[in-house]
Structure formats: structure tokens, C-alpha cells
Design brief:
Elements (H helix, E strand, L loop, with lengths): L2 E5 L2 E4 L4 E8 L7 E7 L5 E7 L6 E3 L7 E6 L4 E6 L8 E8 L15 E2 L3 E6 L1
Parallel strand pairs: 2-11
Antiparallel strand pairs: 1-3, 3-8, 4-5, 4-9, 5-6, 7-8, 9-10, 9-11
Amino acid sequence: QVQLVESGGGLVQAGGSLRLSCAASGGTFSSYAMGWFRQGPGKGREFVAAISRSGGSADYADSVKGRFTISRDNAKNTVYLQMNSLKIGDWAVYYCAANPTRSDSTFRSQPSYNYWGQGTQVTVSS
């Protein structure tokens, strides 16, 4: 059983930056593909970014490509989401998720992920 705890959210002005962290415990972190998802006000939860077990592959939603960077440190059991040039539309609760896959691939679909964190709020002001 994997526990995921997100941190790093907060209030930021449009154009600013934040770095989210997701610390994992209770499992072998390097065995999990990881993803970030978000749910904005009145919206469904959507894919943001994903990274493979090794960190060698990453995938991004079109809406964040070029602004967000996902990375992981398997020695620290942590996945990160660096968010730059934040927009009002990035305002959401951000969740990290873990997929215990044998494949060194990235995954966009939410059902691919077995474990989820509680989320961290990102608020972007104008």
C-alpha cells in the first residue's frame, strides 16, 4: 500500500511559479509510474503530466506543455511538478497518483492509477 502526500500548493499571481512535491511511502517508489492530475472549480479531474518509472519519459497535457515540468527523484521517493507562467486557468486542486506498472511508460488515464494523494490547492490570482 502506497501513501502519497502532496505539498507546495498556495496562492500565486498569474505569471508566477510554484513547485509541487509528492512524497511516497509504503512501497517501492521506483516501481511506480507517477502522474499529476488537477480538478478546477466546477470541472472534472483532468490529466496534467506523467512520468515513467525510470524518469526517462514524460508526457504533458497540451494546456501545460512548455510551462510545466514533471520530474522524480527515486532516491527521495518524490515526484515534482514545476509550474511556471501560471495562468488563471491553472487554478485547481492538484493530485499526484501512482501506477504500479511493470512497464517503463507514461499513463494519461485515471483508471491506470491505483493510489492517489489528498491533493494540494493551487490558487492563481490576476
